[in-house]
Amino acid sequence: MQRSGPGPLDRVFIRLVPLLAVLLLNGCSSAAYYGQLVEGQWQLLRARQPVEQVVANPATSTQLRARLEHARQARLFASQQLKLPDNRSYRVYADIGRPYVVWNVFATPELSLQPVTHCFPIAGCVAYRGYYQQGAARGAAALMRQDGMDVYVGGVEAYSTLGWFDDPILSSMVGWSDERLATLIFHELAHQRFYVQDDTEFNESFASFVEQEGTRQWRVALGLAASGGEQGQQREQLIRLVLACRERLQAIYAGPLDDVQKRAAKQAEFERLRREYRQLRDGQWGGDKRYDAWMYGPMNNAKLLPFGLYDQWVPAFAAVFREVGGDWARFYQRVEQLGQLPIEGRKAALQRLMVNL
Q: Exposure pattern of 132-143 as b/e (b: 16+ CB <10 Å)?
């Protein structure tokens, strides 16, 4: 009997098994880590169902059905208006039974904001390691702390497989607002649209810009104000506070103080960050405490790391978007040109865009 072409699950194995075989050559510890990645991704893929089937199922809750219907509209908008990939990603749904899909572990030296990077065959080098079980992430973080690192563990609500698989809408997103779900779709599809190996700051800033501008246009299409309102403004103000703190810390770590003095200056900067946050919260925000838990939890370099990674070059991409007159196709062409530059040339070009704002 002639065998037909590979089915969906066969294609999964075609992609995953050779990858794992390569990774196993890196040693036992790597085998254990990458094994949990493959197992976690495999479970996620098995849980997927087409959105239309979930919506048509009489047992589907009203809340889930409404979220998926809205997601379908946002997904269509992403491809038609934002020129993002038109594939099956976010047209499938998976019930994962937990609040986060993975937990990322960020780490830096005690007196540096330079991230500890980890390199992967597909994604290249990134500034974190992901774990599908929270306990495993915490265990890895504890070992890094023993080595004197600043470490932060953060739950991740979604991630992109860069087009290798059809990324799903997750059950952990059901309680989100419609807008938050749309913004995530825009952000993750941007990673599929373009991705540069070994440059986390570029990739995340690019996706964050697409998310922000895409959300602005999405709101206008729905007949809403272009601005995300008070919550969006608060988030932007918090980001500015944290990035300013990072810049001051960078200057301290690069300066002439000895290590004892740098440690004292580091803690003083964290107290300044909290003080400036309190002034903003109790003043302009009217006492809104939505960010208190984050701000008053243990603070270190690694906790600040995602802000620099996700937001550093957003204004530069905004400048590119203005230069092309808001044309998404031309914008992506310019982004690809930047991405093809050597990394130092790329950073210099982005810095020039920032200076010319």
A: beeebbeebbee
pLDDT tens for each residue of 120-165: 766 678 888 999 999 999 999 999 999 999 999 999 888 888 888 9
- Residue indicated by tokens 């290590």: 259
Binning the chain into helix, strand and coil, the percentages to the nearest 5 are 60, 10, 30
Cβ–Cβ < 8 Å for 101, 170: yes
CB atoms within 10 A of CB 357: 9
Distance CA 214, CA 208 (A): 10
Domain boundaries, the chain: 230-355
Residues 51-94 have pLDDT tens digits of: 999 999 999 999 999 999 999 999 999 999 999 999 999 999 99
**What is the pTM for the complete model shown?**
0.80
